[in-house]
Amino acid sequence: MKVWLLLGLLLVQEALEDVTGQHPPKNKRPKETGENRIKPANKKVKPKIPKTKDRDSADSQPKTQSIMMQMMDKGRFQKPAATLSLTAGQTLELRCKGNKIGWSYPAYLDTFKDSRLSVKQNERYGQLTLVNSTAADTGEFSCWGQLCNGYICRKDEAKTGSTYIFFTEKGELFVPSPSYFDVVYLNPDRQAVVPCRVTVLSAKVTLHREFPAKEIPANGTDIVYDMKRGFVYLQPHSDHQGVVYCKAEAGGKSQISVKYQLLYAEVPSGPPSTSILASSNKVKSGDDISVLCTVLGEPDVEVEFRWIYPGQKEHSAVWGE
């Protein structure tokens, strides 16, 4: 009887050890501390593939971010859109982040050294301010960081910003021109531009020939309209010669631009040529002599004449209109 009782107690003890895990199976060894767990060899493991977004971001080059900010009311700043429309008279303030910033703005402001424009460089940003704006200030405003080595600087293409601003003014659909009649030269080897730009983004602009009176279509093949430049003749030829003007319509109002004389130049553009001719090849002492130097080239090019002749120091003079 005692033997059976002892055998029963041993069987109960072994069952308890199996349930609590205190006694490991004979075909397995205890797992040591810090030992990695090995997955069964027959289990399929799905390879981890990097996300497409991660691969693309690693392969692609960093995008250029605009460094330009526009000063708004109450001291707020925001990034300007590619095109802005402001009312003439408003103050424009642009800032570009960087300790050395270059600026570009409508040439009209530089030509007359306009005191309304102020460009300053602060410690961390460049600042452009334009007060009492007018329709004539319409155009592209841009900035860029500069990488300098001593006195030599180059543009940092990764740090730029730009916006084209329309300054709307009552009674002015076109950007004012300094003259009532302008000449546009048509060269066979380059584009020609009739620069009738508008101050209202939504304006409908058409090109017209004065005689015979008709509208010249901007078909996108020979002539295209660029709101930042005007009507562009892509491949000028002699048939385009004549007097033209532009017509703009916006808000139920219409306006005619100044007139443009289109002149075709047979000779492709290039450096000017010179010729020199003396009134006589042989003169006596005391006689007068004249020497004529002629320069042939494109109009509106400043020409400098530098004269060198025996017995005199070098002398120079600037001629041109």
UniProtKB/TrEMBL annotation:
Q: Name one GO cellular component term.
A: extracellular region
Keywords attached to this Swiss-Prot or TrEMBL record, sorted alphabetically, are: Disulfide bond, Glycoprotein, Immunoglobulin domain, Repeat, Secreted, Signal
Signal sequence span per UniProt? 1-21
The places in or outside the cell where this protein is found are: Secreted
| Extent of Basic residues compositional bias | 40-50
Residue stretches making up the Ig-like domain? 62-143, 272-321
Gene3D superfamilies cross-referenced by the UniProt entry: Immunoglobulins
**SUPFAM superfamilies, alphabetized:** Immunoglobulin
The protein's matches in Pfam families, at most eight in alphabetical order, are given as: VEGFR-1-like_Ig-like (PF21339)
Q: Where is this region: Disordered?
A: 20-63
UniProt superkingdom: Eukaryota
- Broad class of the protein's primary localization: secreted
- InterPro entries in the record, alphabetically? Ig-like_dom, Ig-like_dom_sf, Ig-like_fold, PDGFRL
| Claim: Ribosomal protein is one of the keywords in the record | no
Q: Which GO terms describe its molecular function?
A: platelet-derived growth factor receptor activity
Name-wise, this protein is: Platelet-derived growth factor receptor-like protein isoform X2
Taxonomy, top ranks, is: Eukaryota, Metazoa, Chordata, Craniata, Vertebrata
